[in-house]
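hey so u asked for the seq, here:
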Amino acid sequence: MSLGSAIAISASGLTAERLRLDVISNNLANVNTTRTASGQPYRRQIVTFAERQPSGFASLLAEARGMPGSSLSGKGVEVTSIAPDTSTPFKQVYDPGNPDANAQGYVKMPNINPIMEMVDMISTSRAYESGVTAINDAKQMQTRALSIGQV
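ran it, structure tokens below
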């Protein structure tokens, strides 16, 4: 695997984590949204990652020829879906003055736990920082490799 591939793999992780952070921010922004266009409360969104498969003729040819290290080239991470969290039920809050309250005075609130979202946000920011560190280290190794022959 070349250092360029290492940078590309880390960059794919940065892109995926940035999107995950956007989704978490959207979840937190909608923590009190009791009615969406569908008439239901906002439902928490979950990002799913998967290993990125190699693409392009050159990487497929290298794998077919069995070149060493070619199985790592072009890989990384990609977002496969952003799906609603259907496993967590909506919260019921007693607020008879709310226009979205049912006959008993309860309002369906989004299934968002702000504490869990903040934990996810910290995890995402740490993963992003790790990706940036990996890219910086790869760039530093390339720079040092170029300076080996210099006097």
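The mean pLDDT is 89. Helices lie at 3-29, 57-64, 114-146.
lmk if thats what u needed
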